Request: fold
Amino acid sequence: MSDHELAATLATQAGQLLLGVRAELADASGAERKAAGDKRSHDYLMEALAKARPDDAVLSEEGADDPVRLRSNRVWIVDPLDGTREFSELDREDWAVHVALWQDGELIAGAVALPAQAITLATPTVPAPPPAPAVPRIVVSRTRPPAVALQVRDALNGVLVEMGSAGAKVAAVVQGLADVYVHAGGQYEWDSAAPVAVARAAGLHTSRIDGSALQYNRPDPLLPDVVVCRPEYAEAVLAATQ
Reply:
């Protein structure tokens, strides 16, 4: 199985596991669903990666950060459950599972599963989004749209589209349901690695908000800002964030 196939398979299967957790804990509290989802998906991914790629390192949101990854040529960067709040709300579909592979300085494979939508977007081949509408759509968190997104909306004369997890937001741009995702409120490598890999495969622009390259598997996994957008909007989006 190729790295691309493995990323897609693991993200999809972890998503199916999470749907099972949701059904099992339908009558439990949201906090119980969050905790169970995070732990079970993380445990599954760690076990599966150890079996399929025993020589590779792993950086997971839910695991202890093992410094061995900094000496490794291949590191899987995973978010077992991106959008725990949305996952805990049984009627929401905007949560995801992220599985990405970093090798020798670059993201080389990635998959974003949207389990409640029965969709997995995965490298190496991701269709480009359909033609953009007349009014750009900027996807933002439903509870706390960052100021930078409001700046971009104003600069592009766009509209805001509210959505949950980072993976779901980037997937919306990839699928043509939105046109721009810009975030500057603080994230980590596992929040964006798989979504960025998928977005790049679809031909989208990806960068930091200052236009510099996104870098992964660094000593500090904090990666606080990201831009994913249609290429034709990249110049205007970056200008609006400065």
Summary: The chain has two domains: 3-122, 137-241. The chain has seven helices and ten strands.
